[in-house]
């Protein structure tokens, strides 16, 4: 077996392989998937000298622990967390050299939800439809990490960055999301639309890679009939019968039968992927569109 591999010592609550996703397959019912905080994942790859298509690991809340079988360069970005190598403190947001057999531990997120772990050469699991991303909705891509799993690594293709610490945008204390109304805002009362653009909602603990569920004021419908299923995009804000918004993220279904009151600006979606349960959410009218 090749020594270009990572052994998973501690998988954490949910650690998955992610890259830039598999856009362009919605007509087949396949979501885009990919890293929820794309800028953080891309930064981690650049720090270790990987190209933009390299796969990284995305952790959820409590991190993970890994043991490389050969010396590698790693970088941890996204949610701030404690990083150690064999129990000794190591840099977060900067390249770190890890010798063969040492244990890299990515600790619990201090802020935010998801950390990104890049390894020189990238995680080289077999791609599916052009992507190595784990898709929790369709089941495409590699399964979430489990203790004892072994992940193959590619050959390094570049030199790691020469920085002490790379600046990063911090996880949001309050999530302000710019939205374009529609296509089904007419299914809601005028008061509900005003409330959508003025009230405070909160991130629900039921949120996941499929969507950010919220709690807060109910948005009343002006129309009570059923809506035929139609295509939805990354960033679509769907309102189920309970009347509180759900913001679709990377593993969202490609069609839905509940009205979409608006679509979040694509540039605001990485922050949505880092919003912890209880985070305040405000929707404001703005220009732009969600991810396709």
From TrEMBL:
InterPro entries: CT_A_B, Cyclophilin-like_dom_sf, PxpC
Domain Carboxyltransferase intervals: 27-289
SMART domains, A to Z: AHS2
UniProt keyword terms in alphabetical order: ATP-binding, Hydrolase, Nucleotide-binding
UniProt KW ATP-binding keyword: yes
Keyword Zinc-finger: no
Protein name: Biotin-dependent carboxyltransferase family protein
Organism: Streptomyces cellulosae
Source taxonomy: Bacteria, Bacillati, Actinomycetota, Actinomycetes, Kitasatosporales
């Amino acid at each position: 077996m090749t020594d270009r591999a990572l052994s998973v010592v501690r998988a954490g609550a949910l650690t998955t392989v992610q890259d830039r996703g598999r856009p362009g397959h919605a007509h087949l019912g396949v979501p885009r998937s990919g890293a929820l905080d794309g800028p953080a994942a891309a930064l981690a790859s650049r720090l270790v000298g990987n190209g933009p298509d390299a796969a990284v690991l995305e952790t959820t809340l409590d991190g993970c622990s890994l043991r490389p079988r050969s010396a590698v360069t790693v970088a941890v970005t996204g949610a701030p967390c404690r990083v150690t190598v064999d129990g000794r403190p190591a840099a977060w947001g900067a390249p770190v050299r890890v010798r063969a057999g040492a244990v890299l531990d990515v600790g619990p997120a201090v802020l935010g939800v998801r950390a990104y772990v890049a390894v020189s050469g990238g995680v080289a699991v077999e791609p599916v439809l052009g992507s190595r991303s784990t898709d929790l909705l369709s089941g495409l891509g590699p399964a979430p990490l489990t203790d004892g799993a072994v992940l193959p690594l590619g050959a390094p293709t570049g030199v790691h960055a020469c920085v002490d610490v790379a600046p990063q945008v911090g996880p949001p204390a309050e999530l302000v999301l710019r939205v374009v109304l529609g296509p089904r805002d007419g299914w809601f009362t005028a008061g509900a639309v005003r409330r959508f653009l003025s009230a405070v909602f909160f991130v629900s603990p039921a949120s996941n890679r499929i969507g950010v569920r919220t709690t807060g004021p109910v948005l009343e419908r002006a129309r009570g009939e059923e809506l035929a299923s139609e295509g939805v995009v990354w960033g679509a804000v769907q309102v189920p019968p309970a009347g509180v918004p759900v913001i679709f993220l990377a593993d969202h279904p490609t069609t839905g039968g509940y009205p979409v009151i608006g679509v979040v600006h694509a540039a605001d979606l990485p922050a949505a992927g880092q919003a912890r349960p209880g985070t305040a959410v405000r929707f404001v009218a703005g220009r732009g569109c969600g991810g396709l």
